[in-house]
Write a structure and sequence with these properties.
There is one protein chain. By secondary structure, this protein is α/β, with parallel strands linked by helices. Helices cover 37% and strands 17% of the residues. The protein has seven helices and eight strands; from the N terminus they run E-E-H-E-H-E-H-E-H-E-H-E-H-E-H. The strands form three sheets. The protein has a four-stranded parallel beta sheet with strand order 5-4-3-6, sandwiched between helices. Strands 1-2 form a two-stranded antiparallel ribbon.
Length: 230
């Protein structure tokens, strides 16, 4: 077992665990879950949070003593906050008023400032948590916005880490990847790696009822009134 120099070195390398009783009699295939809750922040988002920060550091976008700003429902924020503690950054997160007090308190416990914004407004409304985070990055000296939705480091983290882990752990026998859609980073990065190894691998994206992605897939209409989970 390796010795980690910091908690960030404990991210990744999560186990696959076989599902037994739940799938018995329902499916012939072997089904495994990848326990991303074993990451320090209890989420797969730790992977891309650190990747986004380290790529921004290399590009000179995030400078020593800077402030990380992001709109988040909690998990990405937790990954960013953990890395910020280790690396010496400040954090300001915007979130919606539908998020639990426990998630907000957890972010604050890591030293982050959390600004709660209304849920029932359009994304381009100046009160939305998207818009507020964009405004704050302009107003805050030495600030950098992670921008997980458009940041290619998000999917790159899973192409470089999650995909290879799954391929190795299954001995290349994986046939289907079932993954929550969220920002799209996990599905696209992991899926791209697995499909490069075996084009026959199927990638199934799962999201909650009311998701913007479900309506877009079925109708071709991108409805900004629907949600994207982060």
């Amino acid at each position: 077992m390796k010795v980690c120099e910091t908690i960030l070195d404990a991210i990744g390398g999560t186990p696959l665990v076989r599902i037994n009783s739940i799938t018995r009699g329902l499916i012939d295939a072997a089904v495994f879950v990848k326990l991303e809750t074993f990451n320090p922040g209890n989420s797969i988002k730790d992977r891309m949070a650190v990747k986004m920060i380290e790529d921004a550091e290399r590009a000179g976008l995030l400078k020593p003593g800077g402030t990380i700003i992001e709109g988040t429902s909690g998990n990405t924020g937790m990954g960013l906050a953990i890395a910020a503690v280790v690396k010496g950054y400040k954090c300001i997160f915007t979130t919606t008023d539908k998020q639990s007090k426990e998630k907000i308190d957890a972010l604050k416990a890591f030293g982050a400032e959390v600004i709660v914004c209304p849920t029932n407004v359009d994304p381009d409304d100046p009160r939305s948590y998207y818009s507020v985070s964009s405004r704050l990055v302009k107003e805050t000296p030495n600030a950098w916005k992670a921008n997980q939705y458009d940041n290619l480091s998000n999917s790159a983290a899973h192409y470089e880490q999650t995909g290879p882990e799954i391929w190795e752990q299954t001995g290349g026998r994986v046939t289907h990847l079932v993954v929550g859609v969220g920002t799209g980073g996990t599905a696209s990065g992991t899926g791209r790696y697995l499909k490069e190894k075996n084009p026959k691998v199927k990638v199934w994206g799962i999201d909650t009822y009311g998701s913007v992605f479900k309506k877009y897939k079925e109708t071709g209409v991108l409805d900004n009134t629907r949600s994207i989970r982060t």
